[in-house]
Amino acid sequence: MSLPRAYRAHAIVLRGRNLGEADRALSLLTLERGKLDAVAKGVRRGDSRLSGRLELLSEVDASFHRGRSLDVITGADPVTSYWQRLVTPEAFAVASVVAELVDAFCEPELPVPAVYRLLRGATAAIAGRGEARRVLARFELRLLDELGLGIPLDACMHCQRALAEQAVVDLSVGGLACPSCLRPEGNTVLDAGELVALQHLGAPKGQGASLRAGAKVARAVETLIVHHLGKTARSLAALDALAPE
Ligand SMILES: [Zn+2]
User: Residue 119 sits in which domain range?
Assistant: First the structure.
């Protein structure tokens, strides 16, 4: 089947790097086609029609032309841009982690509309609230869930018994363990209240979801995501360099 030379897609900007004198190569998450790379020609010239529309996490309704190596963005109508509100150090750092995680976890040209909607919602939340880090922890748990990699938050990863009083963060399996399966000493331990907060943090929208989790819970999620990613997100280091919560 031959693909059309021109196509449209809703796209959110994940990453960009300068190319030549005025171009930018962008990594985009599109609603219709999943993740793809495309070049925005002349975007760094002030008079470009694309100028200012393709910033980090901006959403556009874009038209593309299929190129020999990279597709070319021929037009971009703004859908939402929170760019002005993402420039504070914390919001920008969290936005960078969110974009990097989507880029790392999503396969090229594999549509994941649930992740697209999750990313759109997370961007609005990061721009709108003064608790960007908790938005990040929730985003991380939901992202893994939507990709079929969800961490069970109510049972021990080893013996499957329900967790109630205590949960030990098990970095070797990227999940939670009961104190019989993993000794609490030397590991992060969540008490009953923190465990409930974690479960609400990871709950699907409309099923008791809440951001009311403390910094310790958010930090535990961050360490778990590192396990699933297989490496530390580069932008997490920038976030950690900011003053702690
Ligand atoms: Zn157990």
Answer: 85-151+193-241
User: What is the whole-number distance in angstroms between the Cα of residue 141 and the centre of ligand 1?
Assistant: 21
Q: How many domains in the chain?
A: 2
**DSSP letters for 120-140:** HHHHHHHHH-S-HHHHHHHHH
| CA–centroid distance, residue 158 to ligand 1 (Å) | 5
Whether the Cβ atoms of residue 192 and residue 164 lie closer than 8 Å to each other: yes
Among 45, 65, 81, where does a domain finish? 81
Q: What is the pLDDT of residues 102-121, one digit of tens each?
A: 999 999 999 999 999 999 99
Distance 227 CA to ligand 1 centre (A): 19
Distance, in Å, from the CA atom of 245 to the CA atom of 243, rounded to the nearest integer, reads 7
**Could you tell me if 161 and 98 are in contact, meaning their C-beta atoms sit under 8 angstroms apart?**
no
pLDDT of residue 2: 63
- Across-strand partners of 26? 16, 38
Taking the centre of ligand 1 as the mean of its atom positions, its distance from the CA of residue 182, in whole angstroms, is 7
Work out whether the CA dihedral 88, 234, 72, 118 comes out positive or negative: negative
User: What are the helix and strand counts (H, E) for the chain?
Assistant: 6, 8
pTM score of the predicted model? 0.90
- What is the distance in A from the centroid of ligand 1 to the CA of 163? 8
pLDDT tens for residues 28-38?
A: 999 999 999 99
User: Both 61 and 109 in a single domain?
Assistant: no
Contacts of residue 132, Cβ cutoff 8 Å, sequence gap at least 6: 90, 91, 93, 94, 126
Does 169 reside within a domain?
no
End position of a domain, from candidates 81, 108, 124: 81
